[in-house]
Specification:
Layout lengths: L1 H21 L37 H5 L9 H15 L9 H5 L2 H18 L9 H15 L21 E2 L2 E2 L14
Antiparallel strand pairs: 1-2
Helix pairs in contact: 1-3
Amino acid sequence: MFRSCTLVIALALPAAALQAQTAPAPAQKPNPPMKMQAAPGAKAAPGEPAAADAQPRRSPFDEMDTNHDGFVSREEFIAYQKKRFDEFDTNHDGKIDAKEIASSPPLMERNLKTAERMVKQWDTNGDGIVTAEEFKADAEDRFKKQDKTGSGKIARPAQPPMPMKGQMTPNGPTPPPVQPQPQPTKP
């Protein structure tokens, strides 16, 4: 599913870019800052609404299906991809590069959520700040988990062997190569 989604997005992005280049660009206001949802169980910042006030995030399919008929038409799909392109095009020049994508609101939101999870993991006293002592304590715990023998050293992980034909792999059995079979000849 992930591969097919990636393929669809990879194919749709150039189409949206082409459409954006051929159509005159309307004057746009800069994107407003995005409201961040607090992580489940997290306290809201002073002056911010509580997480209970936040609306649940809609799936990408629901965002594309603007007429709510249970299907995404070509027009709805292209409009959604144009919206995504516009979110990436932070300087509104009709072109995007890696720096613009990295600094776009969708990726910044994802990075912020990752950072919030990291702080929650390392912040042992729950004050929302990770001290050097807390970070070091977490590093010590991670080291102990990886030091299987208790020797004070972590050995290099062994490379997993390549599966043999027909052997089980995480994705199922490796299929044997297809060999052409000789066909019987008629006398």
